[in-house]
Each structure stands twice: as C-alpha cells, then as structure tokens.
Amino acid sequence: MSVKDYLRERFFPHMWCPGCGHGTVLNSLLRAVEGLGLDKSDIVMTSGIGCSARISGYVDFHSLHTIHGRALAFATGVKFSKPELKLLVPMGDGDALAIGGNHFIHAARRNIDMTAIVMNNRIYGMTGGQFSPLSGVGIKATTAPYLTIDNDFDVVKMATAAGASFVARSTTYHVLEAVDILKKAIDHKGFSVVEILSQCPTHFGRKNKGGDASNMLESYKANTAKTGSKALAENPSLIARGIFVDEDRPEYCESYDGIIKRLSGGTES
C-alpha cells in the first residue's frame, strides 16, 4: 500500500493553518505505517479535541474522534476489547497533559500497548492561543498577555517516571528521524510515547517573535541535539532528541488475559 491509501482524501484540504507542523506529523506517521506494512484495517486511531485531534479525520483507519482529554481512555477500551489491533493516539498539549494528564500517567503506569503521539506546539491553537502545560515560563499568550509564570512539563521525563516502556522525542524539522522513531514506537509492545515538537506560527510564533514556520523549523535545528551526541554534551541546554527508553516489560492486556486463563482453568500463572 502507498501513503495515499491511508488517507481520506475527500476531506482535504485540511483545516490546519499555513505553516502548521501537524501536517508534517501526519506525513511522518503515515510513512511509518507504510514502512511497517500495516493493514489499515488493523489500525485504530483515537483522538480528543484540538488541532492535533483532527488527524483522525484524515486517515483511512478505524477512527474515533472523542472528547477532550479522553483519547487514551477510549483507546484503552478499544485495546481491551480488540487486543490484536494497533492503537494510535495523537494528542496535543491539553489532551495529553492538562485535562488528559491523569489518563496519560496511568496508561503509562499500566504499560498498555498503544502509541501516544504528543504534538507539542506549546499553545492551545484551536481555541485562540491560550498557554498550556507545555508552554513554559516567559511565554506570551491570549491568557498571559504579561507573560507566563508557569513551569512546563518535560514530556520525556514525565512519561519515563510514569512507567512508559518506550519514550522518544523528535521535531517536525527532523522528518526522517521522526519516521524511524514512530516505526519503532508502533512496533514496540507496551505503552509508547513519542513527543514531536511542532510549530504553531499563528498563535505561538506570532506572539513570541518566533517568526514564520521556516524560522521556527530552523530553531528546532539549532536548539536540539541527538541524545548521546557531542553537541549535547558540550551544550546541555539544548533539547535532547532520540529514544530515551526502550524496555521489555509485561504488557497490561496480556497480563490481564493471563489472570482470566488462570481462573478459567488454563495453565498460565
């Protein structure tokens, strides 16, 4: 199958602003799925509300466009009922770590087999440019005209601490790297978290003098470095990219199925 076979082309052109990084994330995700040779009938995508959540309308998979912050909860229900399916869960700042924060840490803790894609543009884009848990200190937003004083979450550290068995980060500038990471995340047995830094020139870049989309992409090139690289060792203030956790751990649905088999007279303990 080609990438176009995974798209619902009748819903294009998409609704994202010119220069938005989310289209690049969609491209990387589809190329990862194509590279793995997955049948689209074996994939379920669940999403909540927000710019990032609109991805579920553009892919020709089984898809659920659900309520804000509950994408992982819906994905958990699907996984329990159909554990053989591949679950993809694209989320934005709020879906993942504001209203959806509790679902995020507990899905990681349980190590449920699904791939959570956190599209981090550091702003609430669809609702007018409010600051988010990923904005950080000193950011101008419609809800912070005099700059934010809230510290931001580090998605990688939070996912790792919560128990995710695969944790990685990339950017919309590093497209091929993102494809490779997403392939590994989807193929991983357990809860996979992939944070992708994604530019929002409309609400974040414009208010914070980040320039247009190309300027913001250049900043991802200049301000990030691969984990374990000489550049990162020489300048620890750079944002690290790459795979931070990749471990084999018991997967929740399989462990739950083991209990059922044991109680019904099976041999698993």
User: How do the SSEs run, as a string of H and E?
Assistant: HEEHEHHEHEHEHHEHEH
Distance between the termini: 41 Å
Strand content: 15-25%
Number of helices: 10
Features:
THDP-binding; 269 residues; alpha/beta; 2-oxoglutarate synthase activity; Rossmann fold; eight-stranded mixed β-sheet; globular
Structure in words:
Keywords: Oxidoreductase. InterPro entries: 2-oxoacid:Fd_oxidoreductase, THDP-binding, TPP_enzyme_TPP-bd. The longest helix is centred in the first third of the chain and has 15 residues, at 22-36. The chain contains ten helices and eight strands. The protein is globular. An eight-stranded mixed sheet has the order 2-1-3-4-6-5-8-7, sandwiched between helices. Helix 9 (230-234) links the parallel strand 7 (224-226) and strand 8 (239-246). Helix 1 (22-36) packs across helix 6 and helix 4 packs across helix 5. By secondary structure, it is an alpha/beta fold.
